[in-house]
From TrEMBL:
<feature type="compositionally biased region" description="Low complexity">
    <location>
        <begin position="32"/>
        <end position="49"/>
    </location>
</feature>
<feature type="region of interest" description="Disordered">
    <location>
        <begin position="28"/>
        <end position="50"/>
    </location>
</feature>
<feature type="domain" description="Lipoyl-binding">
    <location>
        <begin position="40"/>
        <end position="117"/>
    </location>
</feature>
<protein>
    <submittedName>
        <fullName>Glutaconyl-CoA decarboxylase subunit gamma</fullName>
        <ecNumber>4.1.1.70</ecNumber>
    </submittedName>
</protein>
<dbReference type="GO" id="GO:0016829">
    <property type="term" value="F:lyase activity"/>
</dbReference>
<dbReference type="InterPro" id="IPR011053">
    <property type="entry name" value="Single_hybrid_motif"/>
</dbReference>
<keyword id="KW-0456">Lyase</keyword>
<keyword id="KW-0092">Biotin</keyword>
<dbReference type="InterPro" id="IPR001882">
    <property type="entry name" value="Biotin_BS"/>
</dbReference>
<dbReference type="Pfam" id="PF00364">
    <property type="entry name" value="Biotin_lipoyl"/>
</dbReference>
<dbReference type="InterPro" id="IPR000089">
    <property type="entry name" value="Biotin_lipoyl"/>
</dbReference>
<dbReference type="InterPro" id="IPR050709">
    <property type="entry name" value="Biotin_Carboxyl_Carrier/Decarb"/>
</dbReference>
Length: 117
């Protein structure tokens, strides 16, 4: 049986349909599910620190940090708009912002380095 609910996210209301499943069906679903990354950005390390890469092509809506700023894992570094959705790019770990390579309004491709910690 499907139930419809309204969910508000960032001031926008979305209608979602949820199907109720029994325990046996849930066990089958959870065994076949592939875990997804909880971080919207990927990061890579090099001799010049941790590069925070764009998870998808889009446009930078805002940059929330400056060079020299201390950040904690999960802090929002910048906001990326893709397919009319705003996505927060977060710090993969604690650190200091070493370099900001993007600015508001700039278009980026998937994998582009946005900043370095």
């Amino acid at each position: 049986m499907m139930k419809t609910y309204e969910v508000e996210v960032n001031g926008k209301v979305y209608a979602v349909k949820i199907k109720e499943v029994d325990e046996a069906s849930f066990d089958n679903l959870s065994q076949s599910a592939t875990p997804s990354s909880s971080s919207p950005a990927s990061a890579s390390t090099s001799g010049s620190g941790i590069a925070v890469n764009s998870p998808m092509p889009g446009k930078i809506v805002s940059v929330k940090v400056t060079v020299g700023q201390q950040v904690n894992a999960g802090d929002t570094l910048c906001v990326l708009e893709a397919m009319k959705m705003e996505n927060e790019v977060v710090a993969p770990e604690d650190g200091t912002v070493r370099e900001v390579l993007v600015s508001e309004g700039q278009s980026v491709d998937s994998g582009d380095v946005l900043l370095r910690l």
